[in-house]
Structure of Aromatic compound degradation protein PaaI:
Amino acid sequence: MTTSQQASRTDVAGSPPWGSEQSRTITWRDPVTTQATVASMSGLSYWQAVADGHLPPPPIGELMQMRVVAVESGGITFSCTPDASMYNPLGLVHGGAVCTLLDTAAACALHTTLPQGVAYTSVEIKVNYLKAVTLDSGPLTAVGSVVKAGSRIGFAEGQVTDAAGNVVATASTTLLIFELRR
């Protein structure tokens, strides 16, 4: 190991110039305990119950700091306030976080159209990133809407805007619709 490499490691192990360590605590409810309840409800009833606080949100919502803002048949709106834990090495909110927000909004919009005992899963998603997201972007709003809800395949889209109303990303998705096992 060269002297330069040793000095770099000493600098890293010593007093780091990049700021103090930060942390975030994530708390969620066990989703297995609500599965039977969710299966006994239509998608719209489920998301209304989550929005009203009668059922806990799925754990991914807590991880990504997403909250349901509005829900109707064929549409749902989430808010998300990114923090620095979502940053990539370039100092931007990672595109994967924005994609997760879009996937959630679009897929859950389809869920609002499904009857009791019917589920969905993503087949594919296409995302267009239009503007970089940082902490200065403020809270994000993700709106999901159904394009077509068929009997086996559904199509939905999503759009994310920043606090100033600028569109930062859009997505279209295809979802497989299937009956839950009884």
In short: The radius of gyration is 20 Å. The chain has one domain: 32-179. Residues 95-111 form the longest helix (17 residues). The longest strand covers residues 167-179.
